Please model this.
Amino acid sequence: MSKLNFGNAQTDSNKQAIKFILTLICLYIVFSQGNLFMNSVMNPEARFYNSYISDHFNYIQGLKSALIKPAASIIRLFGFYVIYNYQDVMVVNGPQLRINYSCLGLGVMSFLTAFVLSFPSTWKSTFKMLVIGLVVIYILNIFRIAGLGILLGFFKSQRHNFTYHHEIFNVLVYLCVFGMLYIWIGRKPKAQSLKVKAESGKLKAESKKRKEN
Model:
């Protein structure tokens, strides 16, 4: 009987793992490709451009502005004079940084969102992890843009050494994301264990009362 229960538990575990992986892949494709499509919808030079959506629902430009303004403020703290518009950060006597779609971090945001929504958890825990993760990625991206402007401003002759900042940023952010997910997942068995112990204690107390009666 114990072998049968173990076999059923293992089968259920395998089914959950397969469901998680398939859901993760599907959601990641939907989010990542959906963002790419929406970028095309909101870009006047792109194939699927729609002026109404671009004027009223352009969250991509909103994210650009939300990155550019605080990054420019940080660069100013280091004594640089900064001018910016809807897509460029221009440091006087320094670099000009163009914030393209690839700079927004939507790829790693799509992965994080897909993973958290796919993983079996309570809605409260899922929402909390999703908000924390997205905010961390956003803040890291601000410091990446600001740091690039500051470094290129101070080390003008070394600009060729900062060619791979996108790749370095992606590696660092994914490491941070995996670290957060590892901590988040690791806390769940403890919570489940405490819940089981609490229920077990409750059953023992009820059993004791019945015996006394």
Observations:
- Confidence is low (pLDDT under 50) at residues 190-201.
- The first strand starts at residue 82 and ends at 84.
- Helices lie at 2-42, 51-56, 59-76, 106-118, 123-154, 165-212.
- The radius of gyration is 24 Å.
